[in-house]
Amino acid sequence: MKANRVRKSIGAETSFAQDSDVGQMLQELEQIAQIVEQRLEQHETPVRTLTLKVKFSDYYQITRSKTMLAPIGELSTIFEIAKTLFLSIELENRSVRLLGISLSNLDNAKQL
User: Fold this and answer.
1) What pLDDT sits at residue 1?
2) Least buried of 19, 41, 58, 105, by fewest C-beta within 10 Å?
3) What is the three-class DSSP state of 59?
4) Beta-strand relationship, 47-56 and 9-15
5) 65: Cβ–Cβ under 8 A, 6 or more apart, which residues?
6) Regions of the chain where pLDDT drops below 50
7) Sheet with 47-56: strands ordered across
């Protein structure tokens, strides 16, 4: 059965069972960016907004978004935007338990 609704975002996330340092989290963020890029290629849909999700061990969650004028599509662009947003967050020695990237603001004209 195929869903009849139009896709609004493409994303991926990963959980951490234990504390990781910033370097490890950036490596994981790059892997998440690779997954998101592969999913984006499958849908062949231009996107302009990237949202980063960070969830801490106390379940407090922060999201940061950036909307670009030009479509986002290449791995390097996805990772650089996500990395910039991640590094702008004050971690304050808090334990990160989840990182996620989603792309939205899709041009759904192809899907209609």
Assistant:
1) 53
2) 58
3) coil
4) unpaired
5) 49, 50, 51, 52, 85
6) 109-112
7) 9-15, 96-104, 47-56, 61-72
Q: At what angle do helices 22-43 and 75-87 cross, to 10 degrees?
A: 140
pTM for this prediction: 0.87
CA distance 103 to 26: 18
Residue 30, token pair as written in the block: 């790059």
Q: Are 2 and 27 in contact (CB under 8 A)?
A: no
Helix (H, G, I), strand (E, B) or coil at 32: helix
Per-residue pLDDT at 19 = 79
Select from 98, 102, 103, 101 the least CA-distant residue to 14: 98
Which of these, 32, 10, 35, 41, lies nearest to 85 by C-alpha position? 32
